[in-house]
Design brief:
The protein is mostly helical. The chain contains 19 helices and no strands.
């Protein structure tokens, strides 16, 4: 294991031995790639769960499609991180992987957007759900998209750390801009998803097998890939990267440690603070994922009283689609709050006495917001009961209450996107991993909860007669437990913590 440590040290040394940090304009340019990535991710969260139900997948099984993300994240991100740490291409260590990820996104978006058309041409009957061929094409595209996103994000974060060259101020600045551009991508994605006539920009997207909702989805993804390719090509053409040369060992050969030996070494060297961080992070994401996967479905189904099943009436489907668009508007408000909060995380953390106190506090905000979905749902159901099953959606005060929850959740989400990575960079300095591999280790505490929610979320809701509220309540409990553990068992980082090495914001 000593060889693993020596190899990792060489990787870190070469990352930090740049003459000086890159210019701010270069850091901003690379950070802007996050906007293109997050545009597509926002569309996934807001539109794809309803879409698979329109193709004929029952609500209780719709969550299984999201297994693509955690499985690919568990395998792809550590592998990509490992090889991007050691890439000897003349174009640099990170840039080849970023380009490959953008190319895979293009393929995936085509498959997802044209799944209904391809399925119909292969024999799907539009009046006989489920449309199995379209679902298969969609699932393939969805899987490739998740692989592509994982191929993009890890090297992009590591590239920013390389450009910062170990400078604490530049690292925090890079983190802030990365989080900011994530919020920009979210705003663009959710805004596009909330506009029902966007397909008119590209009218050929509507076909016999692709209705208005499908055409809007297709158009949104076309805009997403255009933005991603533009910012990626502009950034990588403008910001160059020095090729990496492996450090020779005493016998004159380049050191080489197998990937699984490296990842095992990283886990073996984890200390108690890092294990506590992984536990708190896992509970935090168990709280987040039910809402992230089903927030727009909750708006369409529970708040608006619609139904997305293929056999539902046109009026019920219209209500559902109206609710999904309202949910996309709520997610846009969420992204705006997230963007402003991301720029102020470091200042707020100092005022509250440190990262762990801030993280613990916002986990209780998350728990309260998830619990409040029960109140909003009850008010919507009471309105429909008192008005004979109203077909015009909920009253204004109910919609406003739901949108307020979306907006307030931007506060804990900004912390979730930053503090765990910052703490990991402090607690795992002796883990024996390079920049990319370290991100992969922390990512396991995120993807494992997503797998649990993806497999169990739908059947768990079905035990309580369907709907999304049971999973949201379970999420509220997990958020409260995560908050308690963050305040009690999670160690505080030392005041002289080194510059953060991940693509997340940090404190001093």
């Amino acid at each position: 294991m000593e060889k693993a440590s020596n190899g990792s040290a060489a990787l870190e040394m070469q990352s930090s031995e740049l003459d000086q940090p890159a210019a701010l304009r270069k850091i901003i340019s690379v950070s802007s790639i996050a906007a293109g990535v997050q545009f597509g991710w926002a569309l996934q969260l807001s539109l794809l769960t309803p879409y698979v139900q329109l193709l004929g997948i029952p609500h209780k099984w719709a969550s299984l499609i999201w297994l693509c993300g955690p499985i690919s994240g568990m395998l792809v991100q550590p592998i990509v991180g490992y090889h991007s740490d050691r890439c000897t291409s003349r174009f640099g260590r990170r840039r080849p992987f970023i380009v490959a990820g953008a190319g895979l996104v293009t393929v995936a978006v085509f498959l997802i957007g044209y799944a209904a058309d391809i399925g119909h041409s292969m024999g799907d009957q539009l009046d006989k759900p489920p449309r199995t061929r379209a679902i298969a094409i969609f699932a393939l595209g969805f899987w490739i998209l998740d692989v592509a996103n994982n191929t993009l994000q890890g090297p992009c974060r590591a590239f920013l750390a390389d450009l910062s060259a170990g400078n604490a101020k530049k690292t925090r600045t890079a983190n802030a801009f990365f989080s900011f551009f994530m919020a920009v991508g979210n705003v663009l994605g959710y805004a596009a998803g909330s506009y029902k006539n966007l397909y008119k920009v590209v009218p050929f997207t509507m076909t016999k097998s692709c209705d208005l909702y499908c055409a809007n989805l297709k158009t949104c993804f076309f805009l997403s890939i255009t933005l991603l390719l533009f910012v990626t090509l502009m950034s990588l053409c403008y910001v160059t990267e020095k090729p990496w040369t492996p450090e020779p060992t005493a016998d004159g050969k380049a050191s080489s440690v197998p990937f699984f030996g490296e990842i095992f070494g990283a886990f073996k060297e984890l200390k108690r603070p890092m294990w506590m961080l992984l536990i708190v992070t896992a509970l935090n994401w168990i709280a987040w994922f039910p809402f992230l996967l089903f927030d727009t479905d909750w708006m369409g189904r529970e708040v608006y009283g619609g139904n997305s099943d293929a056999t539902a009436t046109d009026a019920s489907k219209k209500l559902y689609n109206d609710g999904v668009r309202a949910g996309a508007l709520g997610l846009m408000l969420n992204a705006i709050v997230l963007g402003f909060m991301s720029l102020g995380v470091e200042w707020v953390g100092r005022k509250m006495g440190g990262a762990k106190r801030l993280w613990g506090a916002v986990n209780f905000i998350l728990a309260i917001c998830l619990a409040m979905t029960v109140v909003v749902t009850k008010q919507a159901e009471d309105h429909r009961r008192d008005h004979g099953g109203a077909k015009t959606g909920p009253p204004g005060n109910v919609t406003a209450g739901a949108l307020t929850l979306f907006a307030v959740l931007g506060i804990p989400q900004a912390i979730t996107f930053s503090i765990p990575f910052a703490l990991a960079s402090i607690f795992s300095t002796n883990s024996g991993a390079g920049q990319g591999l370290s991100l992969g280790v922390l990512n396991l505490a995120i993807v494992v909860p997503q797998m649990v929610v993806s497999v169990g979320g739908g059947p768990f809701d079905e035990l309580f007669h369907g709907g999304n509220i049971p999973a949201f309540v379970l999420g509220a409990i997990a958020a409260a437990v995560s908050g308690i553990l963050a305040l009690t068992v999670l160690p505080s980082p030392p005041p002289d913590a080194p510059a953060f090495k991940t693509g997340a914001m940090g404190f001093h």
